Amino acid sequence: AQSVTQLDSQVPVFEEAPVELRCNYSSSVSVYLFWYVQYPNQGLQLLLKYLSGSTLVKGINGFEAEFNKSQTSFHLRKPSVHISDTAEYFCAVQLSSGTYKYIFGTGTRLKVLA
Amino acid sequence: EAGVVQSPRYKIIEKKQPVAFWCNPISGHNTLYWYLQNLGQGPELLIRYENEEAVDDSQLPKDRFSAERLKGVDSTLKIQPAELGDSAVYLCASSSGSGNTIYFGEGSWLTVV
How many Å apart are CA A111 and CA B8, to the nearest integer? Predict the structure, then answer.
C-alpha cells in the first residue's frame, strides 16, 4: 500500500527566513509527486510536481522541491518566505500506472510571522 | 480558461435533511473526482469518474451518498440523509486523464447542525 507522511503539522517561521516542509512517502511502485497549497477557504492549488527527469523541481511563488529516491522524500523549500505564504501545504503521491490513485498527506500549516 | 466550478460554496442544513453539490470540471477533462476534506486533514477520495463511468467508488458510503455524471461532464454528489459527521469540505477535481495533474475547485463547505 502507498502512504504519505508529513511529519510537521505546523511550521512557524519568521518573514524572509527560509523554510523546509517535509514529505516522505512509501510505495512499492513508482509514483509521481506533488505539492499543493490551500489558502483559507479555498481549494487546493498545484505548487509543483515531479514526474521524471531532474530531481530538483521548481514551482510557483518561488518554491522548489527535491525528489530523493533513496530516502523516499520530496521536501518543499523556499529560501525566503512572505506573509502571503501562510497556508496549508499538502504533499501527494500518484501511482504512475494502473489505477493512478492519488494519496494526500495530512498537511502542514505554514505560519509566517512578521 | 475557467477552472473547476463548484456550487454551492457554503451550505448549512439540519441533520437528516438531503443536500446536493454540483461540479463543472475544466473543459475537456474526462476524469472527475470527488474528495472529502475534514478539518485539519488531507483530501480523501470518495469517487472517481472516467467520462460517465465510476471507476473507483470504493470509499463512497453508499448507504447515504450517491453521485452521478450522466453525460460525462457535470457531476452531482448527494447526501441523504445528512449526519452531523458529514460536516466537511467536499472538493471536486478534474484531470485530462488518469495519470495527469488534478485541478481542484474551491470546494463546497457543508455544516450539518
Answer: 29
